[in-house]
Fold:
Amino acid sequence: MARFNAGLAYSVALAFVWGVAYPLTRMAEAYASPMVISLARVALASLFLYPLARRLVVNLKMLVASALNMGLFKSLSEDVQQRVMEKVQELAMGHITGKPLVGKYKNLKRIRIGKYRLIYGEKPCVIYLYGIKPRETAYI
Structure:
């Protein structure tokens, strides 16, 4: 019950802040430029979101890997991109599970998508996507 009350309180606070943002922005336009108003909004949002962001664990290796994987994903044809997205959604909903890998990749699984392989790992409530590669290079 306490979690429900906290969720309700957050929802009411969000609705209030969201509701007063527009009138406050209109009033602030008389005193400041749109750039200053935008800067103030970003700074205020950063103050509220910073405690949540501190819980995230992101390092340089993860950022580089995600950028490379995004570039590789965009280089795939639209048909393959669509099939990959469908498989990822099925995986997230628990409708499919991949085949376990062996050797040094024994903690990972793979899903076959035509000539491509989606390599991923699982932890409770989290799925880590490691790459989408052609079968010939997926396990190197």
Observations:
- The longest strand covers residues 126-134.
- The chain has five helices and four strands.
